[in-house]
Design goal:
With 127 residues, the chain is mainly beta. The protein has a single domain (5-121), classed as Histone H3 K4-specific methyltransferase SET7/9 N-terminal domain. The chain has strands spanning 5-7, 10-18, 24-31, 34-35, 37-42, 48-55, 58-66, 72-78, 90-97, 104-111, 114-115, 120-121.
Length: 127
């Protein structure tokens, strides 16, 4: 399957971009110019920096971030796409992790894309 196609002036199909060092920078798909499906962004060292899903250009579902050592840096979710104003907005608790990928140092709670309460901070971030 070919990558990085432009059809009728819009990105379409599988797309992969690379850093100057040859490592992948991002990988995912476009549908008529909008991100659609699973996307992975990478650190320059080749480790994933984030994983998320798009629906017609909007985030939806689980989103995860990663430190350059490969451990999780954050985890949260985006509202599903249902044709209303909250589509693709952050929702619920977003957990932010220390470099070990296990210790939560901060929680931010969202409701319909806006912060719902004060952040919970458990420790200083170690990075």
């Amino acid at each position: 399957m070919p990558t990085n196609q432009i059809i009728k002036g819009k990105k379409h199909g599988k797309w992969i971009t690379y850093y100057a060092n040859g490592n992948k920078r991002s990988e995912g798909s476009y549908r008529e110019g909008r991100k659609h499906g699973k996307w992975v962004q990478y650190h320059k060292n080749g480790q994933p920096s984030s994983k998320g899903t798009f629906h017609e250009g909007h985030y939806t579902g689980l989103y995860e971030g990663f430190h350059d050592n490969g451990n999780r840096s954050l985890r949260g979710k985006y509202n599903p796409i249902r044709g209303n104003s909250t589509d693709g907005t952050k929702d619920g608790e977003w957990h932010y992790y220390q470099l070990d990928g296990k210790t939560v140092w901060r929680i931010i709670t969202y409701k319909r894309g806006a912060r719902a309460c004060e952040d919970q901070i458990f420790a200083e971030c170690d990075h």
